[in-house]
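Deviations from the work plan: none for this task. Representative record:
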Amino acid sequence: MDLFLVRHARAVPRDAGAVVAARVSAREWNAARALTPRGHAQLRRMVRGLDRLGVSFDHLYHSAKLRSIETANGLAELLDDDGETVTTERLSAPPGEALFAEISGDRVALVGHEPHLGALVGLLVAKGADVTLDIKPSGVVWLRGELRLGGMHVRAVLPPRVLRALARRA
Amino acid sequence: MASTRVARRGPHPAARVVRAIVAKHERRAAPKLEAIALTPWLDHLRIHVAIAKRGHDPEGVHQVRVAVARLRVWLDLGGWRVLHDDLRWLRARAAPVRDLDVQLARELPPAYAERLRAEHRLAREALVRALQTDRLHALLSALAVLPPLSASEARDGLERLTRRTLALGRALPRDGYACLHAVRRSVRRVRFALEWLGQPSDEIVRLQDALGAFGDAFVAVRYAKEHGRGPEMAEHRRVLDRELRDAARKARAVWRRARPVLEALA
């Protein structure tokens, strides 16, 4: 399986003042944080960059938070015609076997959040073992192997600047 | 002298250009101020998921399907590719229960009715399992955070859907039931798009009702083919085949009458 761990693009920041102004709970506000214009630009470059690498997906999983939904919507350009998108709350929580059980496909993208995605890299590559990776907004980690503890290896780490450079090579 | 000349000529040409640009901008910007939130149908879905789970009222399952169809059109109008598959997943679990509810509401040969009741129990178990999954919970949470779509975006989407419907309808006089099904699905989207825009159309509702009756008749024939066996079914299948032919003929006739309405929307 090729597994692409994608951190959502840049979103509006957590802002307590805005929470008060919007009269919603901090949790609701966090779930509804949208991508910024810069985030949308990052997302377009990420999609173009991955496209240059010939990446496509048969399954695309994303969390129920707006910034993840918007990022997945952009990435859906790389989804096969008969590919499937799935919403899962497990991408907003510390990763584990329950997440593995939910995932199917050969070329799969998981669009989620830090620190969970970084911890997932540690679980899949080094069985946890206190290994994590800090993935930047709109960064991608490409893993290959079997979806089990320690069953994968890192094929590529694609931070935003690399994806930007790839996108420019049109 | 100079001031008289200015007064006679009116405002400076540049001012007229600026006003024209501002007016154009305002015309373009105005529809963006209108926002179409999916909240009413998301609430409808939530309420009827609970009713469907309890299982006392078949209307609960029907309304889950209705809400899913409307929400999918809203996503189409807003250009959302994601969440469609989650809604399709939910619909696929609700549809057999509803279809079997409809079959079982009519008079059926007893052995056939018994087989359909067994199918209904299985379909209902699968639906209840789906309604208890994390996927449904995640779907409802995801829909709740989507921002409203702009009316101008929705209007563009409606035009797109209408043009597609008209293109599909061109093959109606020649093609068989497959084309009628495609038109049925497409007209349903146009109807719901109009409703999201607050412009419901009686003609389109009548057309969708006629196409829906064709769809129901088709499903009845399909179930009879799949689950109906024995001599007791022969007469029942003859009745269903006749109903299907009549419903298809009527749907084509209503299509011809409603086509100008669609052309005006495109």
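The radius of gyration of chain B is 25 Å.
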